[in-house]
Specification:
The structure is a single chain. The chain contains ten helices and ten strands. By secondary structure, it is an alpha/beta fold. Strands 1, 2, 3, 4, 5, 6, 7, 8, 9 and 10 form a ten-stranded mixed beta sheet that branches. The longest helix has 17 residues. The N and C termini lie far apart (about 40 Å).
Length: about 325
């Protein structure tokens, strides 16, 4: 029996301050969010992927399955500045080792929400969410056009291009490449924040085979934006639309300790936010997600708070 399940939104997670005296201009996320159900005005859907199987297969630290709930709780009390309906789309749960089935179910949910006109932001969970998100986007977009050019921009200390007979949190973008080949689609992959010391020569070789655009963490400096700008501009120009994924281990361990593999150097949060704004200004971002939030390894919910800030920026 497959140990996967989908659960509707748990609205009890959405709690926070209410400033009655200040009226509608003092709204917060918990006051705006509704459960996704039936036919609704198109808006932004948050969809969780509660999964540790990929991290466990990748010999990482378990705990990311609780990430979606922690991210909702950290986001609930943020000030609301958007003008779109907000929905909680619930969670896909992977209990045990049924990763492939969980990814397939998550992809189906992504495609269904997009078919209904919604934007989707995924809440991870390990970075195995990457293949689930991308395959759902491909399924939806291939119903809209014959050969869509979909680019992936991954902010991550790791390339996640491992070749393996079994999927894991280290394989999602190699899986995406395989999917593109099977569907006759071009594969466009850009990875920003890569640590040369946490990726083997085999991974860099695979990246070269797939024409991956790489920006190393040591190339990301506030006084020289050229490497970052060039990579982003090229990644945007070559495609029709973008899937953007943020692995929280791209940030310094001092800022984001609550991940499976904390970064030794990492990408400055200000540069990451700058990059996300540059991507958003292209109007090509079709889907995004945030991965690797591990509350069991977090300190004072600091990683969850950073993830909530990034979620709000992606949503804007």
């Amino acid at each position: 029996m497959k140990q996967i399940a989908y659960s509707a939104a748990d609205m009890s997670l959405w709690q926070g301050r209410v400033d009655h005296e200040e009226g509608d201009l003092a709204r917060r996320w918990h006051q705006q969010v509704q459960a996704a159900e039936g036919e609704q005005i198109p808006g932004l859907v948050l969809l969780g992927f509660c999964c540790d199987a990929g991290v466990l297969r990748n010999q990482g630290q378990m705990g990311a399955a609780a990430g979606p709930q922690a991210l909702r709780a950290a986001t609930a009390n943020l000030a609301w500045h958007l003008d779109t309906p907000l929905y909680d789309g619930g969670d896909v749960h992977c209990h045990g080792d049924e990763l492939e089935a969980a990814q397939a179910l998550y992809a189906d949910k992504v495609a269904a929400f997009m078919d209904a006109g919604h934007r989707v932001i995924g809440l991870g969970g390990g970075h195995e969410i990457g293949y689930a998100s991308f395959s759902g986007l491909v399924e939806h977009q291939c119903r809209q056009q014959e050969t869509p050019r979909i680019g992936i921009i991954n902010f991550d200390a790791h390339l996640d291009l491992r070749r393996s007979a079994r999927a894991s949190s280290g394989t999602p973008f190699n899986q995406c490449a395989t999917l593109c080949e099977a569907r006759g689609l071009p594969f466009h992959y850009t990875c920003i924040g890569v640590s040369r010391y946490h990726n083997t020569d085999a991974l860099f070789e695979r990246a070269s085979q797939l024409n991956t655009r790489i920006v190393l963490d040591e190339e990301l400096n506030g006084w020289d934006l050229q490497p970052l700008n060039a990579a982003l501009d090229q990644a945007i120009a070559e495609v029709d639309l973008l899937y953007v994924t943020v692995c929280l281990d791209v940030l310094p361990a001092s800022l984001a300790p609550g991940v499976s593999a904390p970064a030794g150097r990492g990408m400055d949060l200000g540069l990451l936010e700058y990059a996300l704004e540059r991507i958003k200004s292209s109007n090509k971002m079709k889907m995004a997600d945030i991965a690797e939030l591990n509350p069991a390894r977090d300190r004072h919910s600091s990683t969850a708070r950073v993830a909530a800030r990034l979620l709000a920026r992606l949503a804007g």
